[in-house]
Amino acid sequence: MKITYYGHSVVLVEAEGKRIIIDPFLTGNPKATIQAEDIQVDAVLLTHGHADHFGDAVEIAKRNDCPVIAVAELAEYCSSLGTKAHGMNLGGGHQFDGFHVKFTLAFHSSSLTVNGQTIYMGEPAGILLTIGGKTFFHAGDTGLFGDMRLIGETNSIDAAVLPIGDGYTMGPEDALLAAKWLRASRVIPVHYNTFPGIEQDGDGFCDRLHKEGIEGKALKPGESLEF
What are phi and psi of 149, to 5 degrees? Predict the structure, then answer.
């Protein structure tokens, strides 16, 4: 499995010949090292509807003729814009061609502002993505919550991305506890240093992970981790 980070919470997962992008906020992302038109994928996964995660999902899905996989209301919205879409909900899983997706809890909010009106986009979610026997967890935007223990106990997570920016999501202290509870083999911090107000030290966070016996890697935008 190869995980490439493109800044903020954008992650491209490659394994077993499949390429899946999660939360493709590229246009307008000051940290992005790739443009939306350069993305070639088999599916687009969304954790929630906020603009800094929804991003270029529709453009990428249309150009690649691939589905947007998201919580039901968000998937329905994408479908209304002309994409293929597969709606799911929290706790539900589905086997796609070559990969499995399950949505978990996330404690946040989810909406888009369209023509000046804020539209509810369903519940926010985390994503468990399993390909070729390896499981990747994208926590989405979330605060710390106790059922992260359950997610860790019931899944063998090979890699996880956790937000550390604080303000809108967990900060480093809570993310460190989340990493322990999830029991992930390796952890990548995301959702930090994109805008003012979410500045954090990713390398410092990973140093703290290492002291707890957890492999941590603060990927720079455009860098990959392969295992």
Answer: -60, -45
